[in-house]
Amino acid sequence: MTQKDITFVADFLTEHFNEAPELYNRKGKYFNVERVGQYLKDEDDDLVSPPNTEGNQWFNFLKDSTHLKESPLLFPYYPEKSLHFVKRQMEGVIAQCLQKPADVIGKSVHQAVCISLYKVSQSEDSTPQLFKLPFLWNDKTSNLHYVLFTMLENSISKIHILRRHTDTSRSVSNGILAVEFGNFLNNSINESSDSRCYSCLDAHFYDDETVTVVLKESVQQEGKERVLAQLPLS
């Protein structure tokens, strides 16, 4: 160690671990603790060495501002407390702010319709994942809400479209339908092949009238075809 290192350590010990008679009544606190570590302790006790806020521009600004000084929009400052204490206080305030909207929204939600998509055996220990790629789209012009999804297992070549009116009291025709891709692309890709079949890798709405899908050739071989197709909802 250089003399500079030794001096640095000595200064640190002198500053932070001097005897502090005024702290003798504190439980186990007979000297100043290191000033960073005290902020990280998960305790409600006051800091042993609270920060000196004298000359702090933000505090001076608040002190001189009539409107901001008592503003409920400013989170209160606890100069005597650790960061854990402040974190718990903030979490409590946030939870209180979110509770009322959660209650109101929760009470306003109700089931409009129930559609059975598939059935599984009651004896199975774990239900297989049959529902995939749910994508939501809201057509504000027609006040329609869409859900795109695919069903695995025996219908991988189909994409399902669920359509509901945003006014739950109104119904729409063809509330749910399936589009099967099958081998409808054969003529455009390979005139001689009649065994090509495609499954849907992904699907999103492109706009209110068009659905974009990524298709994959279903045969088990290298170099499978990938097709990007845009399908009109009509």
UniProtKB/TrEMBL annotation:
The keyword Transmembrane does not apply. The keyword Cell division applies. Residues 136-234 form the Anaphase-promoting complex subunit 4 C-terminal half WD40 domain. Pfam families: WD40_APC4_C-half (PF23405). GO terms for cellular component: anaphase-promoting complex; nuclear periphery. The gene is Anapc4. Keywords: Cell cycle, Cell division, Mitosis, Ubl conjugation pathway. This is APC4 protein. It comes from Cardinalis cardinalis (Northern cardinal). One of its GO terms (biological process) is cell division.
